[in-house]
Amino acid sequence: MTKVIGYIRVSTEQQAEQGVSLDEQRNKLIQYASLYDLELVRIEVDTLSGKTIERVGLQNALQAIGSGEAEGLLVAKLDRLTRSVRDLGEMIDQYFQTAALLSVSEQIDTRSAGGRLVLNVLASVSQWEREVIGERTSAALRHKVALGEHVGRPRYGFKVINNELVHDDAEQHVLSLVKRYRRKGLTLQAIAKELTVQGFKTRKGTEFNHTQVNRMAA
Fold first, then answer.
1. Cβ-count burial of 125 within 10 angstroms (0-12 exposed, 13-18 middle, 19+ buried)?
2. Residue 207 domain-assigned (yes or no)
3. The pLDDT value given to residue 14
4. What mean pLDDT is predicted for residues 164-182?
5. Given this model, what pLDDT does residue 148 score?
6. Which residue has the higher pLDDT, 45 or 88?
């Protein structure tokens, strides 16, 4: 029997107080777990927007997977997990290569070949989106530099040398640490603290915060 952590979410406190959506999601998870012989360890709840994955309930659920307490995450619908393709891709990379992701509404179960195929498609779309954005940014910067136009500082991890956008080795090292810590399941706040402990600073010479780490992990 596969152990799973349930996760449910509504966007506002008012919805949470009414309880209708939460109760509906909770019932779906319980019924699905019973039907497919899953051990529902517990259900984590959030009453926040899906714009960020830094939600207490979600982070608790992901940490349970990372620690081995559960072997998968069960949601009523994927948009309860996140509405961001990029965030979904990050979670796939960090957690759902080995753990299972199950969605009631979309009938996704990555324990099956079909479920893994759907998840791989979603991950591929996310990766494509990130690469296209990176290519456009790089091309735009090179064009502006070639024209002699003033160019603001490129994104963290890069610098402009001789009209070319190149890697900044020191910043790339920090980026690699951030991504490694995310794969281990550390929260954004924990990563920012770890960078501070190791003596790393932002370009402005200040300590990293969770918002900056979130951008770096993207």
1. middle
2. yes
3. 47
4. 88
5. 62
6. 45
Q: Which amino acid is at 158?
A: F
List, by residue number, the catalytic residues. Answer: 11
| Residue 148 lies inside a defined structural domain of this protein | no
pTM of the predicted model as reported, rounded to 2 decimal places = 0.55
> Tokens 């909770």 correspond to what residue?
26
Rounded Cα distance, 196 and 218, in Å: 20
214: left (phi over 0), alpha (psi -120 to 50) or beta: alpha
CA 37 to each of CA 109, 130, 149, 181: distance values in angstroms, whole numbers, following the listed order: 13, 37, 62, 33
Looking at the chain, the whole-number percentage of residues with pLDDT higher than 70 is: 83
Q: What is the CATH number of the domain that holds 47?
A: 3.40.50.1390
Element (H, E) at 217: helix 210-217
Beta strands in the chain (DSSP E): 2-9, 38-46, 72-75, 100-103, 108-109, 158-161, 164-167
